[in-house]
Amino acid sequence: MRCIRLTALLLGAVALTAACTDSPAPSDSSSASPRSAPAQAQQLTPAELQGRWWSWAASTEQSRNPVLDEDGHLCARGQKDGIWFLAGTTGGTVSRSCTVPAGSPIAFPLVNVFGRAADCADFMTTAKGSAALDGKPLTAETFDATPIDMTSVPGNPFTSETNAHTWSCGLWVRLDPLTPGSHELTLRGESGSFTTGVDYHLAVAEVTPNGAT
Fold first, then answer.
1. What is the chain's Cα-based Rg?
2. Any residues with CB less than 8 A from the CB of 44 and at least 6 apart, and which?
3. Which of 1, 8, 32, 33 could form a disulfide with 55 if both were Cys (CB 3.0 to 4.6 A apart)?
4. Per-residue confidence (pLDDT) for residue 161, from 0 to 100
5. pLDDT tens profile 58-76
6. Nearest CA to 168 among 74, 77, 18, 32?
């Protein structure tokens, strides 16, 4: 056991706790490490996917963090490794417009948390959510308490630890690359009294050689 100060995110509900977290062994999946080749979302283990998402969420300071974004103008911040991450909110429902490069697999949690293994056990007893793409329901995966590695930058809204070995859990959706054009994605999640939701207006665009869409 080791005590670290963590900000728990219920895909938002930011609850700062001085918690003694169970100290899992560092993941051998290198969950927060960049890869030389794009990683397909469907090929990642739950530890890799959650570790990378949390590292993405904590890679930007609070004033420019895409998880706190209310309209989508920050959705491209911190994106790397060939997977385009999306997020819910820190409570409540917002509408976001986001341009996604064509060929990018997409992954996002409906609702999630990190902390102690026991926190995950409590959280998942009431966790539920739904998602739909262009009006068609999507299937969510259930990830129970999973040891992950995450990295962060100073001033991010979720943790004060630069490198953390912790536990994560939640309900997740992974999508293969979407066809170019406009898509409507809705996500809703909840656990206990916390609720979150986003109406995403996605524009999937081809990327030109100079990086423009």
1. 16
2. 52, 83, 107
3. 32
4. 83
5. 999 999 999 999 999 999 9
6. 32
